[in-house]
Design a protein that fits this description.
Radius of gyration: 15 Å
Helix content: 25-40%
Mean pLDDT: 92
Largest sheet: 6 strands, mixed
Structural class: alpha+beta
Strand content: 25-35%
CATH class: Alpha Beta
CATH superfamily: Nucleoside Triphosphate Pyrophosphohydrolase
Oligomer: single chain
CATH topology: Nucleoside Triphosphate Pyrophosphohydrolase
Length: about 200
């Protein structure tokens, strides 16, 4: 039976296994045309490419995102990204690590400042999006997305990567100008989070 994992769990060790990354991509259930298109393209872009998790790889590279929910599964954490100037979920570069659940948990911890986060080890969503950060060429992020659960009473403190952090309900998300991929992710994440609270 799948369970939430904490940092340091043996299932979250660093990996350079492309097959593991491909398995993560293949594991995401579809039912959505955009998601299925992204899954096929993502698999094509990372297949047999040991450098797929390196941030210098073009036309794009793997990233890991975390949809962080509070302990009750009622609110999600959004951050206003300093470079991209948009409201986003925590996440970031894999920096060579093909264990994308570990990447998502690490990025969520770094960007939220919350200790004791737990990650659902199976990805729940995929998204390919173009980014054009300052002083970098435009490229693709091949984003594998996970549910992360905060401990009770968690208060985010953030770091230099964000200008603001907010806990928001599912119904409030659209008011933050988030893209359709993040709205799809929120539906999947809140549904899973509710199933974890019998």
């Amino acid at each position: 039976m799948t369970a939430l994992l904490a940092a340091g769990d043996p299932q979250l060790v660093r990996s350079n296994d492309v097959a593991a990354a491909l398995a993560s991509v293949a594991a995401v259930s579809s039912g959505d045309d955009a998601l299925e298109r992204d899954r096929i393209l993502m698999a094509h872009l990372i297949e047999d490419r040991a450098e797929a998790a390196d941030r210098t790889t073009r036309p794009g590279h793997l990233t890991g995102s975390a949809f962080v929910v509070d302990a009750a599964g009622e609110r999600a954490l959004l951050l206003f990204h300093t470079k991209l100037q948009r409201w986003l979920q925590p996440g970031g570069h894999a920096d060579g690590d093909m264990n994308l659940a570990a990447v998502a948990l690490r990025e969520a911890t770094e960007e939220s400042g919350i200790e004791g986060l737990l990650v659902w080890p199976d990805p729940i969503d995929l998204d390919i999006h173009r980014v054009a950060p300052p002083n970098e060429d435009a490229h693709l992020h091949l984003d594998v997305r996970y549910l992360v659960v905060a401990p009770p009473g968690a208060q985010p403190v953030g770091n230099e990567e964000s200008q603001a952090l907010r806990w928001v309900t599912q119904s409030e998300l659209a008011g933050y100008g988030v893209d359709p991929g993040l709205l799809r992710l929120s539906g999947r994440a809140f549904s899973l989070a509710r199933s974890l609270h019998p």
